[in-house]
Each structure stands twice: as C-alpha cells, then as structure tokens.
Design a protein that fits this description.
The chain is α+β, with helices and mostly antiparallel strands and 453 residues long. It contains 13 helices and 14 strands. It has helices spanning 2-6, 45-54, 66-81, 192-198, 200-220, 227-236, 285-299, 302-315, 326-334, 343-349, 361-371, 375-386, 434-445; strands at residues 14-16, 28-31, 82-83, 88-89, 104-110, 113-121, 239-241, 244-246, 256-257, 269-270, 350-353, 403-407, 418-420, 425-428.
C-alpha cells in the first residue's frame, strides 16, 4: 500500500464543488476517488457522500498484490480523464487560475479500510503538461495525437471485485518504451488501436476519420480565426488515405457496415435508423466514427464475447483467475514463450551423464553455447530437445524430466547431436571447439524430422 500512496503524486486532479461550499471560493482541485478495501457498506452520511461523488467501490481478492493495485489505480484514473484529441485531460477547461499547481495527498484509516485523497486548493490551479510529471509520455511513432502505451499489460480484475463504473477514456500512463502498435490493450476497454491490431485497414481508416473529426473540432473552437478564413480552412480539410488526399464526401460512405452473413441473410448493417440513406459528411463524421467503433468493439461483438466468457467460465471459473495477470495466465497455459536462462541455470538444472560431468570440457562448451543462443535459437533448441518450443513456468528449473546431456560415443567433429525428446535426452559429441559445437548444434536444431534409432 505504501507503493500506491507514493505513486499518488503523479495522479491527475479534478475540479468539483465540495458539499456546503468552500472558504476558498473555487472549492477544491482534487483527484476524484476514495480507495476503500471494503469490508462493509458505508455507514455514515459523510462516507456515503464521498462514495456517491466518486462513484468508486473498490474490492479486492485476498491474494491481490500491491503491484496489481497500483497499476489498476493508475489506469483507472488516467483513462477516465485523458482526452487524446485535445492532448490533455478533459477537465482542464474548468481550471481558470494561472498559478503553479501543487500536488499533495493524504491517507487515513477507518474500520472499512484505507481512504485515499489527493488534491490542492482550487486557487492554485494552473494546468501543467502531464508528461512533465510522468503521467503520460509522447509516442514518438505518432503525430502528436496524444496516444500512450500502457504502463503494464496487466488485466484489470473482474468488475464485481474491482468496480470502475465511470466511463473511461482509452489511454493509460506509460513507463514503457514499447510502441502502442505492438501491444494489445488488456485492461478490458477496447480502442481503435486494439481494432487496428486485428483489422489493420479498417482500424487505420477509422483512426484517420477520427483525426479528421478532431481537426474539425479544433478549427471550430478557434476564436482567433475570422469566419471567412475559418470557412476556407474548413473546406480544405482532407483525409490522407495511403498517401492519397481526398475529401470525405468523395468516399461515398453511408451509416452502414457490411459484415455479410449467410446465416442471417443480410449484406449490411445500419449503424443508425435509416443509415443506408444517410451520407457521411464533415458535419456527421464524428458520429460515424462513434457508431462504427461501438459496432466493431462493443454492440457488434457483445453476444460472441458473452458466449465465449460463459463457455470459458464453465471450464475454468473466472473468479479463480483474478489473482493472475494476463501474462501469468498465458505462462501457466502455454509456458514461457520467450525462453530465458543464464549460465548458472544451465549448470544447476541440466544433468550431465554417461561420459560428461559438470566439470567436463565438452559439457562446459555446451553451457557456453547455450548461454549465447538468441531467443529464436533457444526456442528451436527446446523444440529439438523436448518437442515443445516453450518452457514451463519457472524455466529450466521446472522442466521435467530434467534436460540430460550425455556423451555421444564414437562420434567426432563431423557428427551431429541427436535427442530422445520423450525424456529430454541430448546425445552430444565431445567436439574439439565451442565453434564447431555451435555450428553442429544449430544445424541439428533447425532440421525438422523424426527418425527412430
């Protein structure tokens, strides 16, 4: 919990009225939620008021770790209020004072758990760039659209144990150098970035339309441009699709999507009533993006997702998964997908036998070669030696039976390693140099075949 409280300085703030007014006039600038590890419902009017204002009821499974709580809270707060198109938080427009902001936080305890509060007096309310205090960072692969990567790909707990009822924006704080284009959003709220991963063409197109709508809104709200100049720039707003520029009217779009279905006998689906007869224009492009996003990421897939969830729950109750991150679940099911080991792991968890000992020069050459393998080469070696390209959770230490290395008798530098995959049994000639061992081993592990002795 100390880690959570120490992270509070980086949370965004929110401006709202305190009950009964305030001596400061502008009320309080504050991050808007109270953390409770709930044991029971609120039993005082003050507590009820706080929970009603924040709309946050936070419950945790007993095995939830501090790291899971910390990442959940960071995502919950930043996603709720970050506006990518404005490249700022959506409550900034309410802040009028031009003074340096001061972030503070406090915590308290009661019979229901930990209360968590941070903020400042409302008159110290100049907004500062969130990137300067580490809440977000610019994505170098985008053109200033305010997208951020996830700080962690950890999945939020299920909604009846960790509830987040407010509508959420689709960005998170990021301390990772990876680009969003290579990381799926696993926190339960799908975005166009996620859609682009599974449908690149449609995803990029909808993001381009969203960018066009954002430029349109920015132009309409710019009071420094006179009406004539604004109309001229409005008419010049263009889409950039694969390097080709065009106006949205040239595309001939209407408010339909076309997922053909032989079962239900339709060729298109109207996004709104009468959508087949409504053209997409600059005036309604934002509505079109909104309806398409909802169809592809929510209403259009809700039945399929519900069926998958119910079926999965019958095989593996979802409640039992809540103590794990997505990465941990994947590791439990599929093993280590990027095999990791070092020299000590090989020495400790590999069994040299029948001609080799841990001090044998031939075995030590093998250890050096194994330690220097690339990730792809390691996967190929595991496929060759064990019949599976991944390791169980815990790596070599949990590989059963243990990897056994024996000396291949009557074999010299011209011979190749061979294996009995069922028992993880590697028969390795005693090569004269590590270079020859590496060359022969890589040749063997890249061959695909099954030959009985």
């Amino acid at each position: 919990m100390v880690l959570i409280l120490e992270s509070a300085e980086k949370f965004p703030q929110f401006l709202y009225d305190l009950p009964g007014g305030s001596a400061f006039g502008l009320q309080m600038l504050s991050k808007r939620f109270r953390l409770k590890l709930e044991l029971a419902g609120a039993d005082t009017e003050a507590q009820k008021h706080l929970l009603n204002r924040t709309n946050r009821s936070f419950k945790s499974e007993p095995l939830t770790s501090v790291g899971q709580l910390k990442n959940f809270l960071l995502r919950m707060v930043a996603k709720q209020w970050y506006d990518r198109e404005r490249d700022s938080y959506n409550f900034v427009k309410q802040i009028k004072e031009q003074k340096e902001i001061t972030c503070t936080y406090s915590s308290d305890f009661d019979d229901q758990g930990i209360m968590f509060w941070l903020g400042t007096n409302g008159k110290l309310a100049e907004w500062i760039n969130p990137a300067s205090i580490g809440v977000v960072k610019e994505d170098q692969d985008t053109e200033g659209d305010g997208e951020e990567d996830e700080e962690n790909d950890e999945e939020e707990p299920e909604d009846d144990d960790m509830e987040d009822e407010d509508e959420e924006e689709d960005t998170e704080p990021d301390n990772d150098d990876s680009t969003r284009a290579t990381i799926a959003d696993l926190d339960g709220v799908l975005t166009l970035d996620d859609f682009e991963l599974v449908h690149p063409i449609k995803g990029r197109f909808l993001k381009e339309l969203s960018s066009l709508a954002a430029r349109k809104r920015a132009l309409e709200s710019d009071d420094t441009i006179d009406t004539i100049a604004k109309r001229r720039r409005y008419d010049e707003l263009m889409l950039n699709i694969g390097g080709a520029r065009c106006k949205i009217d040239d595309l001939g779009l209407n408010f339909t999507v076309n997922p053909p279905s032989a079962v239900f006998q339709y060729k298109e689906m109207e996004l709104i009533e009468g959508g087949a007869d409504m053209d997409v224009t600059m005036e309604n492009v934002e509505l079109y993006v909104e309806k398409c996003s909802d169809y592809y990421l929510n209403s259009g897939i809700v039945e399929q997702v519900r069926a998958f969830r119910e079926g999965f729950d019958r095989v593996f109750p979802l409640r039992s998964l809540r103590s794990f991150t997505p990465e941990e679940v994947q590791c439990l099911i599929s093993g280590e997908q990027s095999p990791v080991w070092n020299r000590d792991d090989i020495l400790n968890y590999t069994e040299p036998k029948l001609g080799y000992t841990r001090d044998s020069p031939g075995f030590l050459k093998f250890v050096d070669v194994m330690d220097a393998l690339t990730p792809a080469e390691r996967k190929n070696f595991l496929q060759f030696a064990t019949g599976c390209s991944s390791l169980p959770p815990g790596g070599l230490a949990n590989l059963h039976p243990r990897l056994t290395v024996v000396r291949k008798v009557e074999s010299g530098d011209g011979s190749y390693p061979s294996v009995n995959t069922c028992v993880h049994y590697l028969k390795l000639p005693d090569y004269s140099t590590a270079e020859i061992l590496r060359e022969r081993l890589l040749t063997a592990i890249n061959e695909k075949g099954f030959h009985l002795n």
